[in-house]
Amino acid sequence: MTRLDEIIEGLRKVDVDRIFEQTVRKNEDLVTEMVSEIQLYEEGERGDGVFIADFAPYRPLTIELKRGKGQPTNRVTLRDEGDFHRSFFIQFKGDGFEVRARDWKEAKLKREYGEEILKLSSKNMGDLIRSYVVPDIIAKFRAV
């Protein structure tokens, strides 16, 4: 077997799906922060890009309570005390992963605002892949 054959065989053994999962596990805090801080808190968007306030805006009483706490009222953030956001974690499934919450409000908020509240947006998924997954894959290929 020539050196080129050995390299080709080594490249065939690189498991990109496994690298993806390892990279996401290694960066779980970053991924959950993308959902909690960027999508929900800063942008008030679900993972599908829908502004939560467009179909389920805050009620006047909620706006007054949020103003009193110094919290944003121009978008729905799904954050009051922060328990829901702080409870985010990643659950791996056969074909990928999903962001979940350990907080009791998860099911209620998903019913009210849609399953997509915990979905990573296409933009953030692209950032994750470009900035973290691809470099890990390249490093693995270089090691061959």
Describe this structure in words.
The chain has 144 residues and is mainly alpha-helical. The chain has one domain. Helix content is 59%, strand content 8%. It has a two-stranded antiparallel sheet. The longest helix is centred in the last third of the chain and has 22 residues, at 122-143. The protein is elongated, with a radius of gyration of 20 Å.
Q: Characteristics of this structure?
A:
single chain, 144 residues, mainly alpha, two-stranded antiparallel ribbon, 8 helices, 8% strand
Write the layout of secondary structure elements.
Elements: H1 3-12, H2 16-26, H3 28-43, H4 52-55, H5 60-69, H6 83-86, E1 88-93, E2 96-101, H7 106-113, H8 122-143
Antiparallel strand pairs: 1-2
Helix pairs in contact: 2-8
SSE order, one letter for each helix or strand? HHHHHHEEHH
Number of helices: 8
The biggest beta sheet is recorded as: 2 strands, antiparallel
Radius of gyration: 20 Å
Shape: elongated
Tally of structural domains: 1
Q: Strands of the biggest beta sheet: in what spatial order?
A: 1-2
Termini Cα gap: 15 Å
List the uncertain runs. none
What is the residue-averaged pLDDT? 93
**Helical amount among residues, as a percent range?**
55-70%
- Give the DSSP E fraction (strand runs of 2 or more residues): 5-15%
Q: Which structural category do the helix and sheet elements fall into? A: mainly alpha
